[in-house]
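Appendix B, example 12.
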Amino acid sequence: MIRIYLKQAWELLKQNKLFSTLYIAGTGLAIAMTMIMAMIYYVKLAPVYPEVNRQNTLYLTGSCFEKGPEGNHQVVRWAVSYKALQEWFYPMKNALAVSAKLANGDWSENSYIQPADQSGDFHVNVRLTDPAFFRIYAFRFLEGKPFTDADLSSGICTAVITDELARRLFGTTEGVVGQTFRLNYTDFRVCGVVRSASYLTSKSYAQLYVPYSVVSDYREPKYGAPFLGAFSVTFLVENGEQGVALRNELKDIVRRENLANPDDWQVSFWEQPTTHLVSIFQEYVSEELDVWATVRQFLLVLLVLLLVPALNLSGMIASRMEGRLPEMGVRKSFGAGRGTLFSQVMWENLLLTLLGGMLGLLLAWVVLYAEREWVFTVLDDWADAVPEGMEVRVAGEMLFAPLVFLAALLLCVLLNLLSALLPAWNSLRKPIVSSLNEKR
């Protein structure tokens, strides 16, 4: 019976080309917009290469140091110092790995490579970090290995580079380990080559990774506070329970430090370290995230993207059902029941919705890939332009997310069925005589 319904629906689709085109296009646009929004957050939140441990990754990106009485009160907000890393964070027991990143403007924003062929300096994105970084993020090494703790301690100029940068520098990704290149007029030796991450995985992305000890003053604290500096810290935990234990351990460290030095700088980390989910939606680490406000915002967006098109489609279906009343009257007179006719209308609507879903999926993929340099930041409060020389790569695992598509499609199918339910039911309730006498 379902096969017959679908065959009839296909014939009606070909007979009513204008209605079918508008219906499929309307459904496709609704699904495309929903898919684009869903995929933007899928890329931000899902375990994609190399950030496959997002669920168990915690971040500490800021700190607050206060000192002095009310009349001469000083407040400084930044990150933490090398001393804090050594005394507080690296020794923490409730973490599988602890990694630090040094924020240095001269290196992060103004690093240039001087090619051996003297073809001209070009800008690169550099991450100043430590060996634990490669235990938190699952980079695929095509050759070599990460720099070591000994490299970090000695301040040796070594680097892990991406395959894209390797091809640009050496024309290949093979036999690259051991070769040298000039970065900021200093010779660096390649110790490993990794598969490139996407610029969209902002927690781990760079074109080359070097020990933070290559910066001469990395041990120096800032603003006279011994634990204030430019390091942010990333933690890998086993599960949520260990994450809670980690926060409690940090609170104990802060409490002991503040009690031991009541007349010195008093430190606070707010509710850090934060989960990856919170870090995406929290604008400032010092503010408390309003979860319900965020949920309401997304529900409103979904309402606009799905419910408004569904209402428009409901009006189209109502108009179409009025035109089909004589047909329904004839079928009733030959014994077709209301339930049979209703099932046929629903299957026709489902076929059109599925076709619209396929169209919407293709549209979403085209937009996400063709406009990838800006579309993934369209929902950000503070979106930064892609730096010159950085390519926004969209891997297959970012676009081909079956569960996301199925969820969006099921939601649209539900809304489209509801949009067809009332018009179809009202039309089929009319008596046979009224249906047969209805003008086309």
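Residues 71-236 form one domain. The radius of gyration is 30 Å.
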